[in-house]
Each structure stands twice: as C-alpha cells, then as structure tokens.
Amino acid sequence: MGRKKKDVVEAETPTTESKTDAAPTLLWNERGQIGCTLPGHAPFKGTDTWKFEHWKKIPPGTLSEDGKPFRCESCSAGERSPAGATDAADATPPVEAEPEAPKKKGKKAKADLALTTFFEHFLTHFAESGKSAGTCFSYRLELKTATDALGAETKLGDLTSEQVAAYFGSDRVLKTRSGREKSPLSIAKTMRVLRLALVWAQEKGWIEKAPLPENLATH
Questions:
Q1: Number of folded domains in the chain?
Q2: Is pLDDT of 29 > 60?
Q3: Residues 6+ apart with CB under 8 A from 28
Q4: CA gyration radius for the chain?
Q5: Contact 90, 47 (CB under 8 A)
Q6: 89-121: buried (b, 16+ CB within 10 Å) or exposed (e) per residue?
Q7: Other CB atoms closer than 10 Å to residue 1's CB: what's the count?
C-alpha cells in the first residue's frame, strides 16, 4: 500500500522543467539608437555595421534621462516579435491602426505624405534594390533619427532646406549620447541617408526639388 501511495503522489506532482524563452538583450550605439537581440532589431554582433556604429549592451538597470527604462525602438514601433519574446524593459500593447483616409491621386498625394510614411516607401524601394539586411537596418535607424528631429507628421512637400540644414547642424547628428563629437564618417553617413531619400522623392516626381542645403544638393 505504501508503494502505491508514493506512486500516486509522484504522478500527480506537476513538472517544473518547462522553460520560457529568455527576454532579448537591449543594445545601443554611439548615436543613442536603441535595439535588441531579436532578429533584425540591431546589427549582428561582429559585422561591419556593428563595429562602425559602436553597438554594445545596455547595462542592466540603466534608465533614460526621464527616468524610464530603455525600450528597443523596433519593438516600440510595433514590429512583430517571435512568439513568447518580450522587450527587456516592458511590454506595450500594440497600437490599433487608424482607418485609412481616402487616397488622393497624383503628385499632390505624394507630396502630402507624412515623413514617417514617405521613409517607409523609400526603405521598401531600398530593400527591393538588393541591399543587405544590415544596410537596410542601418538606414532605418538613420531615418528614425531624422523622423524624430523633423517631425513624423511633417508633410514631405512642406519640408524645407532650412529645416534640413538645422537638423544637419544639430546635436542629434553631430554628437553622441554622451556629448562627444561623432566621427566625420558617422556624420557624413547620417546626412547621406536623408539626402538619398529626398533625392529619390525628387526623381520620382513626388516633389519638385529635394529640400537640401545648397552644399549638399548635388553631392
């Protein structure tokens, strides 16, 4: 009888061996861009992009200037993550998409695109042109920085060369999170990515002229 009772107890004891996926590690680069170790949310460690942009792990417990935990920018933007994976800082429910407004036709409709939407068009074109995933990711981060500075809802057709010049001369472009001067190569890359996007819009006929400072309009 004693043996049977022991067997029953063991059979009814729940197993605790199942494991959940570990939360992704948060990373940042010298420009203050935040990513994580989920596929596509930061460059692969050891790649040229990883080394060039000085990506590294964010120390546990580090808080942003407003006292909040850091969040991966790709996770925050609502990009779909693998099942069971959550952001290392916190989990935010997905934002419901607003109903689409009736689409306008022609050149005017393209000039009315918000910058955040226009940049998505450009990034899609860029990826379809055969660029590597690492390069596309790097460009996305650069345009995210431009979006934050110029305004996500700013219309493509309303953007001025003065606004772009002010952005190119700002600390977002010229300095790291710690206040150090960025390398000339890093600054040149940030400017080049936005210039390529705006020149592409001009070539597509979405705007009459790319709103660039005179010294960058043809270079």
A1: 2
A2: yes
A3: 34, 35, 55, 56, 58, 70, 177
A4: 23
A5: no
A6: beeeeeeeeeeeeeeeeeeeebbebbbbebbeb
A7: 5
- pTM equals 0.55
Domain that holds residue 153: 106-216
Tokens 């979006």 -> residue: 147
Place of tokens 């400017």: 191
Pair 136, 167 in one domain? yes
Query: Residue 160: pLDDT above 60?
Result: yes
Q: Which residue has the tokens 């043996």?
A: 3
Per DSSP, the three-state class of 31 is coil
Residues 6 or more apart whose Cβ sits within 8 Å of residue 159: 115, 150, 198, 211
Domain end marker among 92, 127, 148? 92
Examine residue 19 and state whether it is found in any structural domain, yes or no: no
* Euclidean distance between CA atoms 168 and 117, whole angstroms: 21
CA distance 139 to 110: 21
Give the residue from 33, 67, 92 where a domain finishes.
92
Please check whether residues 115 and 206 belong to one and the same domain: yes
